[in-house]
Design goal:
8 helices, alpha/beta, 234 residues, 6-stranded parallel beta sheet, 3-stranded antiparallel beta sheet, 9 strands, 19% strand
Length: 234
């Protein structure tokens, strides 16, 4: 591949699962054990903030105990060393890509280690527990700080930037995603329609595997570093 080419990568739950981050939609995932309607909707936040806070505080604590894996690190290396354009889009709300060194990053479903004011929409990095006592640094409102994540019924973030990247992509790569959640499940077709080649790196076939020009199977921690090494050595 010529160094001038633009690469767009989409990552899903599979890449972080190898670091020990629980997935949402697998048969043993979070939503098989908890009721998303009581934990991940704007209505749940308005009716029972404490339950929502408790759920996300537990997940935030667990995130501190995991680390980026070789797949995260390989993508950060690709961003540093690739001579062309590079955009990383993630469906994950953890911070493992950042901790590995990624910077050209779009969190389409938000970020668990940030909080957002439900009144003025100001977003702030925040490491401690969520509580009613928190006041917004921008507007001063108390008791209205929510996790900066996209809940059911809400639109993903920075879709304009995502579609712009897809339109300019020469290569679109999906890593560790099930292909079951839209709009992300439609990104491969969008990129392909604009002339991009498509590659899927995944443990097993996904719902959208037939859309890809090429596939590689195996754990992300193995196949992603291998692919990055080949790309940079080409």
């Amino acid at each position: 591949m010529a160094d001038r080419e633009n690469i767009v990568v989409l990552t899903g739950a599979g890449i972080s699962a190898e670091s020990g981050v629980a997935t949402f939609r697998d048969k043993d995932g979070i939503w098989s054990k908890f009721d998303w309607q009581k934990l991940a909707t704007p209505e749940a936040f308005e009716s029972d903030q404490q339950t929502v806070y408790d759920f996300y505080n537990t997940r935030r604590h667990k995130l501190r105990d995991v680390s980026p894996n070789p797949a995260h690190e390989a993508l950060a290396r690709l961003e540093r060393e690739w001579g062309g354009g590079f955009t990383l889009i993630t469906q994950n709300i953890d911070n493992l890509h950042e901790r590995a060194g990624s910077q050209a990053l779009i969190h389409m479903h938000g970020e668990m280690m940030k909080i957002r004011c439900a009144e003025c929409e100001a977003v702030t990095p925040y490491d401690d527990d969520l509580s009613f006592d928190l006041a917004c640094r921008a507007c001063g409102e108390s008791g209205r700080m929510r996790p900066h994540v996209v809940w059911f019924g809400e639109m993903p973030l920075d879709m304009e930037g995502i579609y712009r990247a897809l339109q300019e992509a020469d290569l679109f790569v999906a890593i560790g995603t099930s292909g079951a959640v839209y709009p992300a499940a439609g990104f491969a077709a969008e990129a392909q329609a604009m002339g991009a080649r498509t590659l899927e790196l995944n443990l097993e076939d996904s719902d959208i595997t037939p859309l890809f020009d090429a596939v590689r199977r195996g754990p992300a921690g193995a196949v992603v570093p291998e692919w990055v090494e080949e790309l940079l050595d080409a």
